[in-house]
Amino acid sequence: MRLLIMGAPGAGKGTQAALIKNEYKIAHISTGDMFRYHMSNNTPLGIEAHKYIDHGNLVPDELTIQMVYERLQEDDLANGFLLDGFPRNLNQAVALDDILKKLNIKLDCVLNITVDDNLLINRITGRRTCTKCGASYHVVSNKPKVEGICDVCGSTLVQRKDDTEETIKTRLDVYYKQTKPVLDYYEKTGIVKNVFGIGNIDEIFNNVKDVLGEIK
Ligand code: AP5
Ligand code: MG
Fold first, then answer.
1. Is the Cβ–Cβ distance between 157 and 130 less than 8 Å?
2. Which of 25, 36, 65, 119 minimizes the number of CB atoms within 10 Å of its CB?
Protein backbone atom coordinates (compact mmCIF):
# COMPACT_ATOMS: atom_id res chain seq x y z
CA MET A 1 0.00 0.00 0.00
CA ARG A 2 1.42 3.39 -1.00
CA LEU A 3 -0.19 6.25 0.81
CA LEU A 4 0.12 9.93 1.39
CA ILE A 5 -1.24 11.61 4.53
CA MET A 6 -2.17 15.28 4.38
CA GLY A 7 -3.69 17.86 6.70
CA ALA A 8 -2.85 21.16 8.37
CA PRO A 9 -0.10 21.39 11.01
CA GLY A 10 -1.45 19.64 14.11
CA ALA A 11 -4.21 17.78 12.25
CA GLY A 12 -2.90 14.48 13.61
CA LYS A 13 -0.90 13.20 10.63
CA GLY A 14 1.97 11.87 12.75
CA THR A 15 -0.41 10.39 15.35
CA GLN A 16 -2.44 8.47 12.75
CA ALA A 17 0.69 7.59 10.76
CA ALA A 18 2.17 5.73 13.74
CA LEU A 19 -1.02 3.63 14.01
CA ILE A 20 -1.17 3.00 10.25
CA LYS A 21 2.48 1.95 10.21
CA ASN A 22 1.86 -0.66 12.93
CA GLU A 23 -1.37 -1.95 11.45
CA TYR A 24 -0.25 -2.33 7.84
CA LYS A 25 3.52 -2.84 8.39
CA ILE A 26 4.44 -0.11 5.97
CA ALA A 27 7.24 2.46 6.29
CA HIS A 28 6.34 5.88 7.73
CA ILE A 29 8.30 8.49 5.81
CA SER A 30 7.91 11.87 7.52
CA THR A 31 9.99 14.65 6.02
CA GLY A 32 9.56 16.64 9.25
CA ASP A 33 10.99 13.71 11.27
CA MET A 34 13.82 13.30 8.77
CA PHE A 35 14.76 16.97 9.06
CA ARG A 36 14.55 16.80 12.86
CA TYR A 37 16.90 13.80 12.79
CA HIS A 38 19.38 15.78 10.71
CA MET A 39 19.02 18.84 12.96
CA SER A 40 19.64 16.89 16.14
CA ASN A 41 22.73 15.31 14.57
CA ASN A 42 23.98 18.64 13.20
CA THR A 43 24.47 17.28 9.69
CA PRO A 44 25.01 19.84 6.88
CA LEU A 45 21.36 19.25 5.82
CA GLY A 46 20.20 19.73 9.41
CA ILE A 47 22.14 22.98 9.82
CA GLU A 48 20.55 24.31 6.63
CA ALA A 49 17.05 23.05 7.52
CA HIS A 50 17.15 24.80 10.93
CA LYS A 51 17.11 28.21 9.23
CA TYR A 52 13.69 27.49 7.74
CA ILE A 53 11.99 25.13 10.18
CA ASP A 54 12.53 27.32 13.25
CA HIS A 55 10.52 30.08 11.55
CA GLY A 56 7.80 27.81 10.15
CA ASN A 57 8.93 28.13 6.53
CA LEU A 58 9.49 25.33 4.02
CA VAL A 59 12.98 23.93 3.53
CA PRO A 60 14.05 24.60 -0.11
CA ASP A 61 12.65 22.13 -2.63
CA GLU A 62 16.00 20.96 -4.01
CA LEU A 63 17.08 19.70 -0.58
CA THR A 64 13.70 18.18 0.28
CA ILE A 65 13.08 16.44 -3.04
CA GLN A 66 16.55 14.89 -3.11
CA MET A 67 16.11 13.61 0.45
CA VAL A 68 12.77 11.96 -0.45
CA TYR A 69 14.12 10.57 -3.72
CA GLU A 70 16.92 8.81 -1.84
CA ARG A 71 14.57 7.57 0.88
CA LEU A 72 12.14 6.07 -1.63
CA GLN A 73 14.93 3.89 -2.99
CA GLU A 74 15.77 2.27 0.34
CA ASP A 75 15.01 -1.39 0.71
CA ASP A 76 12.43 -1.38 3.53
CA LEU A 77 9.50 -0.42 1.30
CA ALA A 78 8.42 -3.86 0.09
CA ASN A 79 5.01 -3.58 1.82
CA GLY A 80 4.65 0.05 0.82
CA PHE A 81 4.96 3.41 2.52
CA LEU A 82 3.09 6.32 4.04
CA LEU A 83 4.47 9.70 3.07
CA ASP A 84 3.78 12.37 5.73
CA GLY A 85 4.62 16.04 5.09
CA PHE A 86 5.59 15.60 1.46
CA PRO A 87 4.67 16.94 -1.06
CA ARG A 88 4.05 20.32 0.49
CA ASN A 89 3.83 22.52 -2.59
CA LEU A 90 2.97 21.99 -6.25
CA ASN A 91 6.60 21.78 -7.33
CA GLN A 92 7.16 18.91 -4.88
CA ALA A 93 3.96 17.20 -6.11
CA VAL A 94 5.21 17.26 -9.70
CA ALA A 95 8.63 16.02 -8.52
CA LEU A 96 6.95 13.15 -6.66
CA ASP A 97 5.07 12.18 -9.82
CA ASP A 98 8.41 12.01 -11.64
CA ILE A 99 10.03 9.95 -8.89
CA LEU A 100 7.13 7.47 -8.78
CA LYS A 101 7.23 7.16 -12.56
CA LYS A 102 10.97 6.41 -12.45
CA LEU A 103 10.39 3.79 -9.75
CA ASN A 104 7.39 2.44 -11.69
CA ILE A 105 4.98 2.71 -8.76
CA LYS A 106 1.70 4.54 -8.08
CA LEU A 107 -0.01 6.08 -5.07
CA ASP A 108 -3.09 4.18 -3.88
CA CYS A 109 -4.63 6.89 -1.72
CA VAL A 110 -4.21 10.39 -0.31
CA LEU A 111 -5.66 10.48 3.20
CA ASN A 112 -6.67 14.00 4.14
CA ILE A 113 -7.25 14.61 7.86
CA THR A 114 -9.61 17.54 8.40
CA VAL A 115 -9.63 19.61 11.60
CA ASP A 116 -10.99 23.12 12.27
CA ASP A 117 -8.25 25.76 12.50
CA ASN A 118 -9.30 26.88 15.98
CA LEU A 119 -8.34 23.46 17.42
CA LEU A 120 -4.94 23.32 15.76
CA ILE A 121 -3.15 25.91 17.90
CA ASN A 122 -4.12 24.14 21.12
CA ARG A 123 -3.06 20.78 19.71
CA ILE A 124 0.32 22.11 18.64
CA THR A 125 1.19 24.15 21.73
CA GLY A 126 0.25 21.17 23.93
CA ARG A 127 2.22 18.66 21.89
CA ARG A 128 5.23 16.90 23.38
CA THR A 129 7.51 14.94 21.05
CA CYS A 130 9.92 12.11 21.73
CA THR A 131 13.56 13.15 21.19
CA LYS A 132 14.43 9.67 19.95
CA CYS A 133 11.56 8.05 18.01
CA GLY A 134 9.50 11.17 17.21
CA ALA A 135 6.24 9.88 18.78
CA SER A 136 3.71 12.66 19.51
CA TYR A 137 1.79 13.21 22.75
CA HIS A 138 -0.43 15.96 24.11
CA VAL A 139 -0.40 17.33 27.64
CA VAL A 140 -4.19 16.99 27.88
CA SER A 141 -5.64 14.80 25.11
CA ASN A 142 -2.91 12.21 24.58
CA LYS A 143 -0.80 11.91 27.72
CA PRO A 144 2.09 9.46 28.03
CA LYS A 145 1.80 6.84 30.79
CA VAL A 146 4.66 8.55 32.68
CA GLU A 147 4.87 12.34 32.39
CA GLY A 148 7.74 13.48 30.16
CA ILE A 149 8.67 9.93 29.06
CA CYS A 150 7.88 8.25 25.72
CA ASP A 151 5.62 5.16 25.98
CA VAL A 152 7.24 3.65 22.89
CA CYS A 153 10.97 3.94 23.60
CA GLY A 154 11.35 5.43 27.09
CA SER A 155 13.19 8.57 25.93
CA THR A 156 12.57 12.15 27.06
CA LEU A 157 9.68 14.19 25.65
CA VAL A 158 10.26 17.80 24.64
CA GLN A 159 8.35 20.64 23.02
CA ARG A 160 9.33 21.14 19.37
CA LYS A 161 11.10 24.45 18.75
CA ASP A 162 8.64 25.31 15.97
CA ASP A 163 5.62 24.72 18.23
CA THR A 164 5.30 28.33 19.39
CA GLU A 165 2.12 30.36 18.70
CA GLU A 166 4.13 32.78 16.57
CA THR A 167 5.59 30.04 14.34
CA ILE A 168 2.28 28.20 14.09
CA LYS A 169 0.72 31.25 12.42
CA THR A 170 3.40 31.13 9.72
CA ARG A 171 2.99 27.35 9.34
CA LEU A 172 -0.77 27.70 8.86
CA ASP A 173 -0.24 30.48 6.37
CA VAL A 174 2.27 28.33 4.44
CA TYR A 175 -0.21 25.44 4.58
CA TYR A 176 -3.07 27.43 3.02
CA LYS A 177 -0.94 29.18 0.41
CA GLN A 178 1.35 26.33 -0.65
CA THR A 179 0.09 22.94 0.58
CA LYS A 180 -3.68 23.23 0.13
CA PRO A 181 -3.20 23.53 -3.69
CA VAL A 182 -1.47 20.10 -3.54
CA LEU A 183 -4.70 18.64 -2.21
CA ASP A 184 -6.62 20.23 -5.09
CA TYR A 185 -4.02 18.70 -7.45
CA TYR A 186 -4.69 15.19 -6.09
CA GLU A 187 -8.47 15.74 -5.99
CA LYS A 188 -8.35 15.72 -9.79
CA THR A 189 -6.87 12.20 -9.76
CA GLY A 190 -9.76 10.84 -7.65
CA ILE A 191 -7.58 9.23 -4.96
CA VAL A 192 -8.26 11.68 -2.10
CA LYS A 193 -10.20 10.32 0.89
CA ASN A 194 -11.19 12.76 3.62
CA VAL A 195 -11.18 11.64 7.24
CA PHE A 196 -12.79 13.83 9.90
CA GLY A 197 -9.95 14.45 12.38
CA ILE A 198 -11.85 15.63 15.47
CA GLY A 199 -12.62 13.16 18.24
CA ASN A 200 -10.93 10.28 19.94
CA ILE A 201 -7.66 9.16 18.29
CA ASP A 202 -8.81 5.50 18.13
CA GLU A 203 -12.16 6.45 16.59
CA ILE A 204 -10.38 8.46 13.92
CA PHE A 205 -8.09 5.49 13.28
CA ASN A 206 -11.15 3.25 12.84
CA ASN A 207 -12.39 5.65 10.17
CA VAL A 208 -8.95 5.55 8.54
CA LYS A 209 -9.08 1.74 8.47
CA ASP A 210 -12.55 1.83 6.89
CA VAL A 211 -11.25 4.12 4.17
CA LEU A 212 -8.13 2.00 3.58
CA GLY A 213 -10.23 -1.16 3.54
CA GLU A 214 -12.00 0.17 0.46
CA ILE A 215 -8.80 0.59 -1.53
CA LYS A 216 -7.14 -2.75 -0.72
P1 AP5 B 1 6.13 18.50 10.01
O2 AP5 B 1 6.87 17.78 11.04
O3 AP5 B 1 5.58 17.77 8.84
O4 AP5 B 1 4.99 19.35 10.73
P5 AP5 B 1 3.51 19.80 10.31
O6 AP5 B 1 3.01 19.46 8.96
O7 AP5 B 1 3.45 21.22 10.71
O8 AP5 B 1 2.61 18.91 11.11
P9 AP5 B 1 2.79 18.53 12.58
O10 AP5 B 1 3.81 17.46 12.73
O11 AP5 B 1 2.93 19.78 13.39
O12 AP5 B 1 1.32 17.98 12.91
P13 AP5 B 1 0.70 16.54 12.73
O14 AP5 B 1 -0.43 16.65 11.76
O15 AP5 B 1 1.71 15.48 12.49
O16 AP5 B 1 0.04 16.37 14.17
P17 AP5 B 1 0.36 15.35 15.36
O18 AP5 B 1 -0.08 13.98 15.00
O19 AP5 B 1 1.73 15.52 15.89
O20 AP5 B 1 7.04 19.67 9.41
C21 AP5 B 1 7.77 20.53 10.26
C22 AP5 B 1 8.58 21.51 9.41
O23 AP5 B 1 9.56 20.78 8.61
C24 AP5 B 1 7.80 22.33 8.39
O25 AP5 B 1 7.20 23.48 8.98
C26 AP5 B 1 8.88 22.66 7.37
O27 AP5 B 1 9.69 23.70 7.83
C28 AP5 B 1 9.73 21.38 7.34
N29 AP5 B 1 9.28 20.44 6.30
C30 AP5 B 1 8.72 19.21 6.48
N31 AP5 B 1 8.38 18.65 5.32
C32 AP5 B 1 8.74 19.54 4.34
C33 AP5 B 1 8.63 19.55 2.93
N34 AP5 B 1 8.05 18.55 2.27
N35 AP5 B 1 9.10 20.64 2.26
C36 AP5 B 1 9.69 21.64 2.90
N37 AP5 B 1 9.81 21.73 4.25
C38 AP5 B 1 9.34 20.68 4.97
O39 AP5 B 1 -0.70 15.92 16.41
C40 AP5 B 1 -0.59 17.22 16.94
C41 AP5 B 1 -0.98 17.22 18.41
O42 AP5 B 1 -2.37 16.90 18.54
C43 AP5 B 1 -0.24 16.18 19.25
O44 AP5 B 1 0.00 16.73 20.51
C45 AP5 B 1 -1.22 15.00 19.33
O46 AP5 B 1 -1.02 14.22 20.49
C47 AP5 B 1 -2.55 15.72 19.34
N48 AP5 B 1 -3.62 14.97 18.70
C49 AP5 B 1 -3.54 14.19 17.60
N50 AP5 B 1 -4.73 13.67 17.28
C51 AP5 B 1 -5.60 14.15 18.22
C52 AP5 B 1 -7.00 13.98 18.44
N53 AP5 B 1 -7.75 13.21 17.65
N54 AP5 B 1 -7.57 14.65 19.48
C55 AP5 B 1 -6.83 15.42 20.29
N56 AP5 B 1 -5.49 15.60 20.15
C57 AP5 B 1 -4.88 14.98 19.12
MG1 MG C 1 3.80 15.45 12.23
1. yes
2. 25
